[in-house]
Amino acid sequence: MNKEGIKRLEAEAESLVILLIRAYAQFLFLRPMLVHYELIARIGTEGKSAGFKQLRNLLYWSFIQELVKLCKDGDERTPTVERLMEKIKGTAVKKILEDKFSCNGLPQIEGEDEETWKRHQKEYEKESRERFSNVFDRLQNNTKKLLDSNALSGFKKIRDTLIAHNELRKTENNYEFFDIEELKLEFGQERELLKLLEEVVNDLNSVVRNTGFSWEPYLEQETRDVCKFWEIESIEPDGVD
User: Fold this and answer.
1) 184 pLDDT band (50/70/90 cuts)?
2) What is the pLDDT of residue 194?
3) 205 and 13 Cβ atoms separated by less than 8 Å
């Protein structure tokens, strides 16, 4: 793979962070609408329940579509976890990324002799290659867990039949839209999927770009903004983490 190919991989990895930030913003805004019972009750007393439910449904399915698109998508131009992982798992590309990850080198400290510096360089490179191997193994395991999950499979089915398209199916006695109940999805799976996706995107950026994103301050600020908008003290109801 040439320099332009590596540059493309780096751009795709970075874009997954940007898209995940967008998905997190949707999730954090939506979360109180799903679980914050005091907020839901207050909206009811204000006579806004019908509009609130409509907005909640629209936001929820929009968020699900973003999740699915981040993981897998049929358009070759679209960066996804599945497509990027496919590109970097080959031996040749993996070796290029490992060398890039491990060979940044240490600056020579003033007064440090050449032999000592070279020894430190070799130790650093060895430790870096071991760290790369550990991160890559974890990335492969978590990616497989993500892409093979029942939740993602179910959400993709919903995206394909009810969100991106409106599939009309022949039943025993009639024609009907796809019934979500068939998928046996559980509330909260979208949150678990989002967290796993965050781990995968972090590791992808580590092995491809040798960098990461500081999620905690971003999520804290976004949470404060959401609480201010909804006039609540926390996104989660009391007793829920």
Assistant:
1) low
2) 94
3) yes
Give the tokens for residue 9.
Answer: 């991989």
Question: What is the pLDDT at residue 223?
Answer: 96
Contacts of 233 (CB under 8 A, 6+ apart): 227
- How many other C-beta atoms can be found within 10 angstroms of the C-beta atom of residue 56? 16
Q: What are the Cα distances from residue 229, in Å, to 25, 48, 75, 200, 219?
A: 13, 16, 36, 30, 15
Place of tokens 């998508």: 73
pTM: 0.83
Q: In whole angstroms, how far apart are CA 233 and each of 24, 88, 168, 236?
A: 19, 43, 44, 9
Q: Each residue of 15-51: pLDDT tens digit?
A: 999 999 999 999 999 999 988 999 999 999 999 999 9
Number of residues written out for the chain: 241
